[in-house]
Amino acid sequence: MARQRKGIEVSIAMADAVAQANVDVIAAYPITPQTHIVEHLSEIVANGELDAEYVPVESEHSAMSVCCGSSAVGARTFTSTSSQGLALMAEIFYIAASMRLPMVMALANRSLSGPLSIWNDHTDTMMVRDAGWIHVFVENGQECYDNVFCGYRISEDPSVMLPLAINLDGFILTHMIEPVIYEDNETIRKYLPEVRMKNALHPDNPVSMGCFAMPEIYTEAQMNREQGILNSYPTIIKAWKEWGDLTGRYYHPIETYRTEDAEYCIVTMGSYGETAMEVVDALREEGEKVGVVKIRLWRPFPFEDFRRAVEGKKSLIVVDRAISFGGPGGPVALELRSALYGRPNAPAIVNYVAGLAGRDVARSDFRKIILEGKAKASKGETEGFTLYGLRG
Amino acid sequence: MLEIRLHGRGGQGAVTSAELIAIAAINKGNFAQAFPSFGPERRGAPVVAFCRVDDRKINIRAKVYEPDVVIVLDPGLLSLLDPTEGMGEGGILILNTKKKPQEVVTAPGRSLKVVTVDANIIATEELGRPIVNTTMLGGFIRATGLIGIDDIKEPLLERFGKKLGERNLKAMERAYQEVSIGE
Are residues A119 and B34, on separate chains, in Cβ contact within 8 Å? Predict the structure, then answer.
């Protein structure tokens, strides 16, 4: 395939990237809004365009089980799911990380039931936040495409060996037609070597995986997991840097927009970052000293990058897409408050939860959130959170 | 940036129209988005699709609320909803109707450019059934000049295949010729 710029549905571009990454095994069960990704992959495999096993399983629990098996024998592995599908595979999702099994998942974010909803927010991914996977958030189709390759580079790196989820907003991205630049296969091959796993299962070299752990070893196993994900950070930085050097598109754990002289910032994760940029442009015209801070790497959380990005700011208005019921509000604000707690001159944090289950957040809403949030911060109203747009 | 909203019924191909405009614009080197009003699809139910075209990267991830252009595929929808909602001065309203632009009544206080295409007749004659999404694109192309017929040819043929694609193209070209553009 030659390098080309295409007008294409983001799901299809992502599936094409998975094929270009030359995966060996795909196991998935269709669920809205992820469906187009796996449907297109099954077509690619059925048409003989990709030499891979497509395993049409009977449930997501089985999908993740197949993925664990295939990764354990050293095969490049892909899956995709959303919401209830993720909930059903949660048991094995944790096991994939604990067994240090590399794979890439396209997690098309959708709200969790109930009430039953098919639309987008981040409640599904927050359910598995603590499983030990690497979590990357993307904002547009190009980032979905690019991060498939970066994802495999990171996940399969011998110093990492962890599963990685690419979080893309369901519908907002999965069902969007927009321009995506496809890189040629030679560039991909240069960037992403064939998969080689040192400890893959093989009859000639028997190893045990996923064993029972007595209390004497469980703690140490968890420390191994924690150290593993912390150690992935330099590899993530390197993988993104090299992708940028090849394609001109660079990624960073925390990204900023017009923050240099900003007094306050809106903080987003996922596709909302783009609308926020647009609104910040308009507010800048009116003299507001506002910028955008975007969290791309959610796990391992890049504490130092974040603290650097917000140093000297008066306040942060954090937009969450999920609620921790009975807890501190949104999971992102919780993270950021904890990252800044006890630091001298830390910015005040005002938390909004918005856009639950696909409720549209338009430019006018972002404007309101930013200006209202700024006012709240200056009045010291920084406790808890506000559920934006709640009808009376 | 030009923002477009399409009103149709499930199965009429409003999303396909949005998609074809976006792909044609992207192929010309522009930036574009096309997306449905997200949700379960039901044949016959009113649906909305959106499209944005710009010469720079588009950073908006929300629905279109203030469209510059509105395309209505099904005349029956006019009694159910106000397709001009959110439209500003100088907006272009493209309707599938037998009426002439001067016969179309819109809410007072705004001057809209009304464009009419008798798309049911054209589509029935050219395609054998009143599926008007591609026909209405002929009206859109003529009224806006945003893209040319030639720009949409390739994505159209790719989408529908040669045989059906060419019939759709003919319907579109006829609409381009037969459209009535108001003052």
Answer: no
